[in-house]
From TrEMBL:
Domain Aldehyde dehydrogenase: 17-460
Oxidoreductase found in the keyword field: yes
The species this protein was found in: Arthrobacter ginsengisoli
Entries under Gene3D superfamilies matching the protein: Aldehyde Dehydrogenase, Chain A, domain 1 (3.40.605.10), Aldehyde Dehydrogenase, Chain A, domain 2 (3.40.309.10)
Presence of keyword Transcription regulation: no
Coiled-coil ranges (or none): none
Record-level Gene Ontology MF annotations: phenylacetaldehyde dehydrogenase (NAD+) activity
Active-site residues per Swiss-Prot or TrEMBL entry: E243
Cited PANTHER family: ALDEHYDE DEHYDROGENASE-RELATED
The family this protein is said to belong to: Belongs to the aldehyde dehydrogenase family.
Database matches in SUPFAM superfamilies: ALDH-like (SSF53720)
Name under which the protein is recorded: Phenylacetaldehyde dehydrogenase
Domain of life assignment: Bacteria
Length: 469
């Protein structure tokens, strides 16, 4: 285990270009990140390709044992990693934030290591015996986002490594230090060259997506970038797993208890200060309990402290970057200008340092308002009134995205009936965004394709091969 300063120093560039990373909560310097170039990418891919065959030859048991040791390494450096994550991304240490994210990294490593992966006998009738195996792809490219930079990187690399692949990671330009530090810790327990982070710009990401030696790209980010990756992968017919934008709907049925669900609704929407792909981003509430839900949710949101992430009291932090702050501000202003009612927030203090936008609840808003129709990706939740469940389902399904959704009710059976009508990759009952390493996760419509987690997630990091005979 290294101290925080030693960990930061270990990933600092010693030559070449660098980029100063600033704390989005304070504007102070976090550290210097390397700006890798295309030649750095080529070296990383070559090293990965050289290391991969021996890694694949170890077999599932040995690779799983290495992942378990890597999880131990993450836990040994957990506080240092969480502190760096808090300073670079902005999320507080406490609540479902920085310490939670680092803990999830260890949990997903252990889950990837512990998930059984055996050949499947598909036919054995005395005449024909056919088995379905999954062999390694080779080198996997992982392109991650800035909102959960460590955890989503683990979602990508843990199953890739378990299945016998090498990985080249391209982190977001906003949060490279977190990913570099995570990889440095993981590499204490992995063979040299197997896992490399290339901290470059858009040109590096484009080159990775089209590189002929990369057999698969895993990407989490915007739908627009996902479409660009699809195009750039076509010439080499790469396999893809894409987890793209979402604008998740939640439907509160008329029998729900407003007070009982208020905190769950809050965290469904405001986890990571709303900067989560599968967060609750538009809430549909039946007219019978609309005012009560608004009242209870406002009371919960008003009590949640927001501020600098290293302050142990805070559970909400800043937006990670100015661009995202401006998007949230624009959408809330559009709602206000259209006559929607601001129940809470909507009034950022632009004189203070940091990209802080207060927790904001917006009621009496039209379903076609930009705050509802566009993904805000921040701490602003529109609450839309509906009269019939058919109306709510129609509004929930109206957009071209479908990552997650939720139904809230005192009757789980009734909630499940509504859930089957919603066009989303995952529909939660009386919760939202609760991912589990054992449960497959992926999007519908333009929220991407391919599954992560569990056995299905492991299979997605292999090439299916049938042994017939």
């Amino acid at each position: 285990m290294e101290t925080y300063d030693a960990l930061l120093a270990s990933i600092a560039p010693t030559s070449g270009q660098s980029r100063t990373i600033l704390d989005p909560a304070t504007g102070t310097v976090v550290g210097e990140a390397p700006v890798h170039a295309l030649e750095d990418l080529e070296r990383a891919v070559a090293a990965a390709a050289a290391a991969q065959p021996e890694w694949a030859a170890l077999g599932h048991d040995a690779r799983s044992a290495a992942l378990l040791r890597a999880a131990d390494a993450v836990e040994r450096s957990a506080e240092e990693l969480a502190r760096l994550l808090s300073r670079e991304q902005g999320k507080p240490l406490n609540g479902p934030n920085a310490r939670f994210e680092v803990g999830a990294c260890a949990a997903w490593l252990r889950a990837a290591a512990g998930t059984p992966m055996e050949p499947e006998t598909v036919v054995d009738d005395g005449e024909t015996r056919a088995e379905l195996h999954h062999r390694p792809i080779g080198v996997v490219g992982a392109i991650g986002p800035w909102n959960w930079p460590m955890m989503i990187t683990i979602w990508q690399i843990a199953p890739a490594l378990r299945m016998g692949n090498a990985v080249v990671v391209k982190p977001s330009e906003y949060t490279p230090l977190s990913v570099l530090a995570l990889a440095k810790v993981l590499n204490e327990e992995l063979p040299e060259g197997l896992l490399t982070v290339v901290s470059g710009g858009r040109d590096v990401g484009e080159a990775l997506a089209g590189h002929p030696a990369i057999g698969k790209i895993m990407f989490t980010g915007s739908t627009a970038t996902g479409k660009a990756i699809i195009r750039s992968s076509a010439d080499t017919v790469k396999r893809l797993t894409l987890e793209l934008g979402g604008n998740d709907a939640g439907i509160v049925l008329p029998d729900a208890d407003p007070k009982a669900i208020a905190e769950g609704l809050f965290w469904g929407a405001f986890i990571n200060t709303g900067q989560t792909c599968a967060a609750l981003k538009r809430l549909y509430v039946h007219s019978d309990i609309y005012d009560a839900v608004c009242e209870e949710l406002t009371a919960v949101a008003a009590a949640m402290p927001m501020g600098v992430g290293l302050d142990e009291a805070n559970v909400l932090g800043p937006l990670q970057n100015r661009q995202q702050f401006d998007i949230v501000a624009r959408l809330v202003d559009a709602a206000r200008d259209a006559g929607a009612k601001i129940l809470l927030g909507g009034n950022p203090d632009t004189d203070q340092p940091g990209y802080f936008y207060p927790a904001t609840l917006v009621a009496d808003i039209d379903n076609n308002n930009p705050l509802v129709a566009e993904e805000q990706f921040g701490p602003a939740l529109p609450i839309i009134r509906y009269s019939t469940v058919d109306e709510a389902v129609t509004m929930a399904n109206a957009l071209d995205v479908g990552l997650g959704a939720s139904v809230w009710s005192s009757d789980p059976a009734a909630a499940r009936g509504v859930a089957t009508r919603i066009q989303a990759g995952t529909v939660w009952i009386n919760k939202h965004g609760a991912v589990d390493p054992r449960v497959p996760f992926g999007g519908a419509k333009q929220s991407g394709y391919g599954l992560e987690f569990g056995v299905e997630g492991l299979k997605a990091l292999g090439v299916p091969q049938v042994i017939n005979g």
